[in-house]
Amino acid sequence: MDTITAFVKRHPLVVFFVLAYVLTWPMIPLVSVSPLWGFPALFGPALAAVIVAALTDGRAGLRDLLSQLVRWRVGARWYAVALGLPMVLALTAASLNLLLGAQTSVNFGELSVLNFVVFVLIVGEELGWRGYALPRLLAERSALAASLILGVLWGAWHLPTFFVTGAPQYGLPFSAFVLLTMAYSVLISWVYVHSRESVLIASLMHGAINLSQSFFLGGVDPAKEYWLLAAVYGVAALGVALAFGANLSSKRYVEADRPQVQDKASSG
Fold first, then answer.
1. Region 225-235 average pLDDT
2. Which residue range forms the structural domain that includes residue 101?
3. Nearest-CA neighbor of 166 among 10, 27, 15, 19?
4. Angular region, 30: left φ>0, alpha ψ -120 to 50, beta rest
5. How many domains does the chain have?
6. Assessment of whether the complete model's pTM goes beyond 0.70
């Protein structure tokens, strides 16, 4: 056990991502039996984060991780951005679809109970991605670089769903999806660094992204939808990067901002 703990402490991020994949991917084939089996898979990143935080920093690490879930005093404007920006961008993608001469109309309001369940359970992803991985990537990188790295790994986490019948991404273009998760990641990180590193706000934005696309882009060919969204979100992410710089904020991350994460990152 001491050997395992020592290895995790030396390579916390690597272990986190491996665990996030290992705890999720075996569940994906079960989605072909019932979509409900996809819900436990959403908590793979959270469980990985809890395990690695506990092994590397014990109760203090767990307390720091979980405290981000209840960090709600972040200013009303960031709630507005987290919930409103995905709606604006999804509507923009829907409008672009029509401008490009789509043969079928967009069906607004195609939401189900499952959409709202996923909205709540998405916190299982965000506790891992933004709660654990992003702060440690930020310790040695700019927010933009950290976001792009996380976006690729986050997109790759979904890989099995592109090959399992019944999964949400089955048969869709994986390349477009990875570009999309990279753009998502930049925008969510932008909100995250401005909201006192709140996983709650990141979860709300992630959930709003999913809901807005279901609401505004019903009836759009799914493959085309990914490319439209990748274009629209990509432009938005580029705009944020140009406006706020590599740190996605006027405040630069410095060593004193997160000493405990800096120490851990330097050891891994």
1. 97
2. 2-267
3. 27
4. alpha
5. 1
6. yes
